[in-house]
Amino acid sequence: MASLSLKGIQKVYPNGFQAVKDFNLDIEDKEFIIFVGPSGCGKSTTLRMIAGLEDISGGTLEIDGKVMNDVEPKDRDIAMVFQNYALYPHMTVYDNMAFGLKLRKVPKDEIDKKVREAARILDLEKLLDRKPKALSGGQRQRVAMGRAIVRNPKVFLMDEPLSNLDAKLRVQMRIEISKLHENLGATIIYVTHDQTEAMTLGTRIVVMKDGVVQQVDTPQNLYNTPCNLFVAGFIGSPQMNFMDAVVKVNGSDVTLTVGEHVLKVPASKKKALIDGGYDGKTVVLGIRPEDVHDSESFIANSPDSVIRSKIKVYELLGAEVYLYFDVEGTQMTARVNPRTPLRNGDDAVFALDMEKIHAFDKDTELTIL
Ligand code: ATP
Asked: Domain 4-234 belongs to what architecture?
């Protein structure tokens, strides 16, 4: 397998549009890297430059220390799996997987060995004689993976490989891909829109916006310590709640005022607000829905972090409930236990877990805490 290095990678399309700006990333052998970001942020363009399907306008792409910018796609030792897996309909599963190797004039017995090994890994052994139309979506996607595996590439690139599958199959395939990563010890770069795929599959996630990398980190670190307002809002579902809050420093007391609510900042969170000179300024206060509590005991223990509002929407999702309400004209979400007595129209009291708050500079949108 392989390590990759992207140094100052740029993409300017012929119409002058700059889709990727100064992309820097070192990918270690066996890493599972996820590119996420809103539609049009440059994920696929970056992946296609690595594959050699798009020219690189600036910067250097190295695979195992060798510059690859001008190397033909077929000579990069990379396999790409797309969302529309484009199997040959007239060929059996076996022949679909064997096709690329036949073209390369690989000896027949070697092809047979590789196809059967890939079929074993992907649990396709019983389906080798079938044509694609006699397969389910998930099985077809596994054949597409099989086609990539038999080539034994240095790097796998996957562009939303599961987006055409229904929700249940997606979960199954996600587990398959995770196992595959472990079994093959492969270096994988994977593009997705899907939060859950990103959080569960990635060893590291690259969050992009408008062609610019915002943050590269483990799923856990991205969730707990986003570097700016965009990443905080993009990672996590339902998304983090944001509200404007005025900082007040009074001796050693620090409070955040949101409309009529005054929230006391705990000792662990004061320093950044004081040292940053935020006294009297408005910041963006962030709190994840699971850190907004409706339980009586939590509220009783946190009298200085209480927010009152009327429930607008009650959503039961089985194992949890989402409650939607407004604070100072901003919609908020609380993720609470299904035993909650609260329903649409109820006057509700919530307490924020102030140890879990985030704050962002209103101008730069960078994280303060
Ligand atoms: P999605 O999640 O919707 O697939 P993406 O993050 O993968 O989006 P890209 O496909 O990389 O985004 O596109 C990045 C930007 O480059 C988009 O604004 C797109 O419109 C633009 N773009 C893509 N291909 C071309 C092209 N051939 N010429 C000009 N602009 C292009």
From this structure: 3-Layer(aba) Sandwich (3.40)
